[in-house]
Amino acid sequence: MIEKIIKEFAERFTPGDKLVYVGDTDGKFAHFNEVGLRDLDVTIPVINWMRIPKSLL
Fold first, then answer.
1. Helix (H) or strand (E) holding 22
2. Is the torsion defined by CA of 8, 4, 22, 34 positive or negative?
3. φ, ψ (nearest 5 deg) of residue 28
4. What is the CB neighbour count within 10 angstroms for residue 33?
5. How far apart are CA 42 and CA 46, in angstroms?
6. Total H helices, total E strands in the chain
7. Pairwise CA distance, residues 48 & 9, whole Å
8. How far is CA 18 from the centre of its chain?
9. pLDDT in tens, the chain (57 residues)
């Protein structure tokens, strides 16, 4: 469903653009275009979620 929403939104409102990142609560990196983000000089830190106390999440 997320893919369909994004595809329809992108075609309508951002034609010709390139999707570089989509995250959600289940799959932190539902779509992750590392090269596209790097080209924009964007880095996403890798977080070890197992080390963060549940009270902070």
1. strand 21-22
2. negative
3. -50, -35
4. 15
5. 13
6. 2, 2
7. 32
8. 12
9. 777 888 788 888 988 888 777 776 665 666 778 888 888 888 777 766 666 666 555
* Domain regions of the chain by residue span: 19-51
Alpha carbon distance 53, 33 (integer Å): 29
Alpha carbon 53 to its chain's center: 23
User: Which residue, among 46, 20, 17, 18, has the nearest Cα to 33 in the 3D structure?
Assistant: 20
Question: Of 23, 25, 24, which is closest to residue 33 (Cα–Cα)?
Answer: 23
Q: What are phi and psi of 22, to 5 degrees?
A: -140, 125
Report the predicted TM-score, pTM, of the whole model to 2 decimal places. 0.44
